[in-house]
Amino acid sequence: MYMQYRMSSGEKEKVNDIVSDLLQSNIIRDSQSNYASLVLLVRKKNGEYRMCVDFRKLNSMTVKERYPLPLIDDQMYKYTQGAKYFTTLDLASSYHQIPVAESSKRLTSFVTPTGHEAYVTRDLSEIPTELRQLPLSDDVRIVGGNEAAPNSLPYQVALNLIFESGRSFCGGSLITRRYVLTAAHCLDDGVISLEVLLGTHNIRRNETTQQSISTSNFTLHEEYKNNRMKYDIATVYLPTPAILNQFFCLSNDCLILI
């Protein structure tokens, strides 16, 4: 057991908040291990804090696996040649998605200002190698996907997000004539207002089936925290009700016209 790193009262509060989130997400659990590492806070570029566990001593005793990481250029060519549409998908906290062997969990213990916890998922030096060896399924690939037929998903909307520095796009789904459901991370970073595009297939064109409703009224889940998947939902209020028709409605068969 080690002495803790010194922290201010504000830093201790932030550590407690992070630990609470990790416990609720089943990433860590309470521990009674006779071994523990220390924690410290690192400020990220966006001003938020990341809690880091100092596993240097544990990592120095870990038997390393040797698995070559591929060249990014080779992987890009292999999986994107001939593809028409491209997107990105960030695997949030991927190192928290691989379980730790039960016999090793006690070694991942760490001390905080208010407790003693241990990881049940990986957070050690071997995680890049472990992730590289996981099997990939073509069923979940986004690159190379087929284009949806016009109006085949009549409840989906495009959100044209307006910032002081420019614009961006996000997606959402109409859940009533007045409300759109979307992700909170789309709206949590300085969005001034947004244009909700309904019944559109190509956002680069003004289509005859398209409805456009401007709004600045949106609500993020009260427990959402930046860069966390939990509670990453938000609602957008439409000041003008959506007009439901054969091109845009609340279900695939366009029968629910409330």
List the keywords.
258 residues, alpha+beta, HIV Type 1 Reverse Transcriptase, Chain A, domain 1, Thrombin, subunit H, 2 domains, 7-stranded antiparallel beta sheet, 3-stranded antiparallel beta sheet, 4 helices, serine-type endopeptidase activity, Peptidase_S1A
Structure in a nutshell:
This protein is 14% helix and 23% strand. With 258 residues, it is of the alpha+beta class. Strand 7 (167-174) and strand 8 (179-182) form a beta hairpin.
Kindly describe this structure.
It contains four helices and twelve strands. It is of the alpha+beta class and 258 residues long. The chain has two domains: 9-65 and 72-119, HIV Type 1 Reverse Transcriptase, subunit A, domain 1 (HIV Type 1 Reverse Transcriptase, Chain A, domain 1, Roll); 156-237, Trypsin-like serine proteases (Thrombin, subunit H, Beta Barrel), CATH 2.40.10.10. It has a seven-stranded antiparallel sheet, with no helix packed on it. A hairpin with a 4-residue loop joins strand 7 (167-174) and strand 8 (179-182). The radius of gyration is 23 Å and the shape is elongated. InterPro entries: DNA/RNA_pol_sf, Peptidase_S1_PA, Peptidase_S1_PA_chymotrypsin, Peptidase_S1A, RNA-dir_DNA_polymerase, RT_dom, Trypsin_dom, TRYPSIN_HIS. One of its GO terms (molecular function) is serine-type endopeptidase activity. Residues 142-258 form the Peptidase S1 domain. This is Coagulation factor IX-like isoform X3.
